[in-house]
Design brief:
The protein is of the alpha+beta class. It has a single domain, classed as Alpha-Beta Plaits (2-Layer Sandwich), CATH 3.30.70.20. It is 18% helix and 11% strand. The protein has 3 helices and 4 strands. It has helices at residues 15-19, 66-75, 91-94; strands spanning 2-4, 25-27, 32-34, 54-56. A hairpin with a 4-residue loop joins β2 and β3 (32-34). The model has no long low-confidence stretch (mean pLDDT 98). Bound molecules: iron/sulfur cluster and FE3-S4 cluster. Iron/sulfur cluster binds at residues 2, 19-20, 22, 24, 34, 39-45.
Length: 106
């Protein structure tokens, strides 16, 4: 499966959503997650993310491991998003900032 990681938080560019053939993205207030049961590993979303926040679970950096669980858990409760929308207003400012995980709104 593919996994959305920390750098999506407070950016939420949503370019990833437009290319996914199976609508596996789910949307929260300031983050998106991928439903691991729906993802078909097509790889299309990974290069689309301007924040480089999407990884294959096989390439997931060690410090982003907790996002496996976060994607699985929140995809159960957040609604599907299937069309691109505007990024969050301060997306550029937050892109690349470290320690954003505590800012994830559920
Ligand atoms: Fe969707 Fe493909 Fe990305 Fe999986 S790898 S989330 S199927 S675009
Ligand atoms: Fe997030 Fe990147 Fe998609 S910032 S919303 S994973 S395009």
């Amino acid at each position: 499966t593919f996994v959305v990681t920390e750098n999506c938080i407070k950016c939420k560019y949503t370019d990833c959503v437009d290319v996914c053939p199976v609508d596996c993205f789910h949307e929260g207030p300031n983050f998106l997650v991928i439903d691991p049961d729906e993802c078909i590993d097509c790889t299309l979303c990974e290069p689309e993310c301007p924040a480089e926040a999407i990884f294959s679970e096989d390439d997931l950096p060690d410090e982003q491991m907790e996002f496996l669980q976060i994607n699985e858990e929140l995809s159960r409760v957040w609604p599907v998003i299937s069309e691109k929308k505007d990024a969050l207003p301060d997306a550029e400012e937050w892109d690349g900032k470290s320690n954003k995980t505590p800012l994830l709104e559920r």
